[in-house]
Structures are given as structure tokens and as C-alpha cells.
Specification:
It is a single chain. By secondary structure, the protein is of the alpha+beta class. It is 58% helix and 21% strand. The protein has 1 helix and 4 strands. A 4-stranded antiparallel sheet has the order 1-2-3-4, covered by helices on one side. The longest helix has 95 residues.
Length: 163
């Protein structure tokens, strides 16, 4: 009987040891799966945060581009207003006999590397050409005027002569 008892104890020991080993492997697998799930969740949360920040930045860039485009359009309209004012002044000069001819056209262009597209510029100096004579060869002759636009205040000055 002692042999049966020893065999029974040995079988019980193997069953308990095998069960313990199975439990340990199962437990370790569950812990590893939980750790992997936590890592994946953290990675997804970070990816979502980065995507949200990129979307916010893209929206901010789009809004800034819209403001910049509106400012550029406003500046182009201001150039047209400058040309109209210079034309009015030149018509007065014709009426007073300061210049000869009738006004055919007026065009104003930034000088010294100035630009209406550079929104960092707070002022732009323009050279304006008042055409009073069509030379018949595709060229015009006339008189130079000038204008200075202050983009911050929206006001400009202008006069006769080169800038």
C-alpha cells in the first residue's frame, strides 16, 4: 500500500504542478495581453492627439490664408483708388495748364522692390504714369506722378513728379 500511496502522491504532485504551470502560463499571457492593450491604447491616444493638433494647425493656416487673400484684394482695390486720385489730380493739372493733352490712362506700380503682395510691408511707394499722348507706335508719353500708401492706416499721399 505504501507504493500505491506514493504513486497517488506522485500523481497528485504532477496534477498540482501541471495545473500550477498552466495557471502561471495563462496568467502571464493575460498580463502580457493587458500590457500590450495599454501600450496600444496609449499609442492610439497619442496618434489621435497628433492628428487633432495637425487638423487644428491646418485650420489655422487656412484661416490665415483667407485673411491674407482678403488683405491682398484690399490692397489691389487701394491701388485702383490711388490711380483714380492721381487721374483726378492730373485732370486738374490739365485744366490749369500745368500739363498738356488729355488723360488717356493712369497706371501705378510699386518701386524699389515694393509689392502689394508682401503683407509685411507697412508702406509702399508707387510710381504712377499718366499717359497723355499715344505715340502711334505702341508707346505712350506723359507725366510721372507718385504715391505713398500706408497700409496700416489705409491712407495715401500723392503728387506730381517721380517718387
Amino acid at each position: 500500500m505504501p507504493k500505491k500511496w506514493a504513486i497517488g502522491a506522485l500523481v497528485a504532485l504532477f496534477v498540482l504542478g501541471g495545473g500550477g504551470a498552466i495557471w502561471k502560463v495563462s496568467h502571464d499571457a493575460q498580463v502580457a495581453a493587458a500590457e500590450e492593450a495599454a501600450i496600444n491604447l496609449a499609442a492610439q491616444e497619442e496618434a489621435d492627439r497628433v492628428a487633432a493638433e495637425e487638423a487644428r494647425q491646418a485650420e489655422a493656416r487656412a484661416a490665415q490664408q483667407k485673411r491674407d487673400n482678403a488683405e491682398r484684394a484690399s490692397r489691389e482695390a487701394a491701388v485702383t483708388e490711388i490711380e483714380t486720385s492721381v487721374k483726378t489730380m492730373a485732370e486738374g493739372h490739365v485744366a490749369k495748364g500745368l500739363i498738356d493733352g488729355s488723360i488717356i490712362s493712369v497706371s501705378c506700380s510699386p518701386v524699389s522692390g515694393g509689392s502689394t503682395d508682401d503683407l509685411t510691408e507697412t508702406t509702399t511707394v508707387f510710381e504712377c504714369f499718366v499717359a497723355t499722348n499715344d505715340n502711334g507706335d505702341g508707346t505712350m508719353s506723359g507725366f510721372k506722378y507718385h504715391a505713398t500708401m500706408n497700409w496700416t492706416s489705409g491712407e495715401f499721399t500723392y503728387g506730381m513728379g517721380a517718387p
